[in-house]
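Batch manifest line 364
LIGAND: heme C
JOB: complex structure
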Amino acid sequence: MTTARILILLLLCSIPLMVSAAPIQGGVHLDRKVVPRGCSTCHLKFNFKAGGGPDTCVICHGDPSRLARQYSNMPSGFAPKAGTLKNVEAEFSKPHRHPTFDVRGVHKGGETLPETDERIPRHADCVDCHNPHFVTPANKFAGIRGKRVGNLVTSISKEFELCYKCHAESANLPGRFTNKRAEFVLSNASFHPVEGEGKNSAVVSLLKPYREKKVNAGDVSTISCGDCHGSENPDSPQGPHGSLYEHILVDNYSTKDNQSETPFAYALCYRCHNRASILGNESFRYHAQHIQGKGGTTGSTGTSCYTCHNSHGSQENRYLIRFNPTVVSPNSKGMLKYVEKGVSTFRGECYLSCHGVDHNPKVY
Ligand code: HEC
Ligand code: HEC
Ligand code: HEC
Ligand code: HEC
Ligand code: HEC
Ligand code: HEC
Ligand code: HEC
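JOB STATUS: finished
ARTIFACT:
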C-alpha cells in the first residue's frame, strides 16, 4: 500500500466524526464480512460527491460477469462473490424505467427534495432512493431523509413517503403528471388504500387475501405503490426500477378507448379484482356493456377502466370515478359530473357525452 493510500484511508476513517453527528454505521455495505474493503470500495480516488454515481452501484448490483473484470476505480478484492447479488442494472435497460442512467450528474449530495426550483432537470439516482451508508436487506430506505418539520428532518419508514419526494409537490413535476399525495390523501372521496384502509365497504370484486377492512389475521386491507409499480418479472429484484410494461407497472394495463376486453388488457386490475365479478356486473350494472362493448353485429368495442376510473384516487368522487377527458365530454346541457346514490346500493347518475351518446343523465 502506498503512503498516499494509507493517508486516504486514515482520513476516511475520521470523516464520520468530522462531517456529521450521525455516524456512518449499521449499513450492510459497511459490514466487512459483506463488503471487505469498506469505505474505500466506493470512495477510492476521493470521490465523495456522488460516490461514482449509479455506475459504482452496478459494479456489484449489475451484470454478474462484470465481477470477473478488474475495475480501475475499485480497490482489489472489493467484490462479493459473483452470482450472490441480483442484477438490478438489467431492470434499467427495460423500455419503462426510472431515469437513473438516462439523466446523469444532476443529483447532489445533501440536496433538498421535493425540488423547489422548477428549472432543475428531473432525476432519480440510486442514492435518491437508497442511502448506501445505512441501507440493510431489511430496510432498503434506511437513512433516506424525509420531510423537514422545523429543524427536524424525519427519516423515511414507508415506501410512499419516498415516492412523494419526487411525485408530489415537486416544482419540476412535468405537466402531464399529477401530485400523488393529493390523490392518496385519506380525506379524499375515494382512493386505493395505500396510506390507510379504503372508504368503500362493498368492493364486491375483491379477490382474497384482499379485503376492505382487516378482520382476520390473513386479510390484506392496504396495498403499496410497489404492488402495482415494479418489474413485470416476479423473479427480478423488487422495486420500481424498470418494467416491460408502461408506467413501470407489474402487469399490463391498457388505458385506450375502443379496444376489446381480454384478461391481458386489464391484467393489473384483475390481480386483485375478480374479472368474473366485474364483467358479471356485480357492482356497476353496466360494467360489461362499457368494458366489452356491445360487440356482435353492432361492431362496437369496449373502453378501458381508465375512461371512468383513476388508478390512484379521486378528490371529488367515490369509486375512484374520474372521467378521462380525452374520451368523455360534457353533455348537451354542458354538464359533466357523476352523482352517487349511496355505498352498496350500486346506484348513481352520469351527466356526460361519450361516443356520441348523450347522458343527461343516464341512471343506473
Ligand atoms: C457502497 C458504497 C459506499 C460505501 C461502502 C461508503 N460510501 Fe460514503 N458515499 C457513497 C455514495 C454513493 C455517496 C454519495 C451520496 C449522495 O450523493 O447522496 C457517499 C457520500 C459520502 C460522504 C459525503 C457526505 C454524505 O454523507 O453524503 C462521505 C463523507 C462519505 N460518503 C464517507 C464514507 C465513509 C467514512 C465510509 C466508510 C465508513 C463510506 N462513506 C462508505 C457510497 C459509499
Ligand atoms: C462492493 C460491492 C457493492 C457495491 C459497490 C454496492 N453494493 Fe449494495 N450491497 C452489496 C452487498 C454484498 C449487499 C448485501 C446483500 C445481502 O446481504 O443480501 C448489498 C445490499 C444492498 C441493498 C439492500 C438490499 C439487498 O439486496 O440486500 C441495497 C438497496 C443496495 N445494496 C444498494 C446499493 C447502492 C445504491 C449502491 C451504490 C451507491 C451499492 N449498493 C453499492 C454490495 C455492494
Ligand atoms: C428522486 C426522485 C424520485 C423518487 C424518489 C421516485 N421517483 Fe418515480 N420518477 C422520477 C422521475 C424523474 C421519473 C421520470 C418521469 C418524471 O419526470 O416524472 C419517474 C418516473 C416514475 C414512473 C413512470 C411514469 C410514467 O408514466 O412512465 C413511475 C410509475 C414512478 N416514477 C413511480 C415511483 C414510485 C412508486 C416511487 C417510490 C417507490 C418513486 N417513483 C420514487 C423520480 C423519482
Ligand atoms: C392499484 C395500482 C396502483 C397503485 C397502488 C399505485 N399506482 Fe401509480 N399507476 C397505476 C396505473 C394503472 C398507472 C397508469 C395509468 C394512470 O396514469 O393512472 C399509474 C401511473 C403512475 C404514474 C405516472 C402517471 C402520473 O400521473 O404521474 C406515477 C408517477 C405513479 N403511478 C406513481 C405512484 C405512486 C408514487 C404510488 C404510491 C404512492 C402509486 N403510483 C400507486 C397504478 C397504481
Ligand atoms: C425511484 C427509487 C429507486 C431508485 C432510483 C432505485 N431504487 Fe432500488 N429499490 C427501490 C425500492 C422501492 C425497492 C424495494 C424496497 C422494498 O420493497 O423492500 C428497491 C429495491 C432494491 C434492491 C433490493 C432488491 C431485492 O429484491 O431485494 C436493490 C439491491 C436495489 N434496489 C438497488 C438499487 C440500485 C443499485 C439502484 C441504481 C442503479 C437503485 N436500486 C435505484 C427504489 C429505487
Ligand atoms: C363506463 C364507466 C366504467 C368503466 C369503463 C369501468 N367502471 Fe368500474 N365502476 C363504474 C361505476 C359507476 C362504479 C360504481 C358502482 C356503484 O355505484 O357502486 C364502478 C365500480 C367499480 C369497482 C368497485 C366495486 C366492485 O365491483 O368491486 C371496481 C373494483 C371497478 N369498478 C373496477 C373496474 C375495472 C377493473 C374496470 C375495467 C376492466 C372498470 N371498473 C371499468 C364505472 C366504470
Ligand atoms: C394490489 C391489489 C389491487 C390492484 C392491483 C388494484 N386494486 Fe382496486 N382495490 C384494491 C383494494 C384492496 C380495494 C378496496 C379499497 C376500499 O375498501 O375502499 C380496491 C378498491 C377499488 C375500487 C373501489 C374504490 C372505492 O373507494 O369505491 C375501484 C373502483 C378499484 N379498486 C379499481 C381498480 C382498477 C381500475 C384497477 C386497475 C388499474 C385496480 N383497482 C387494481 C386493490 C387493488
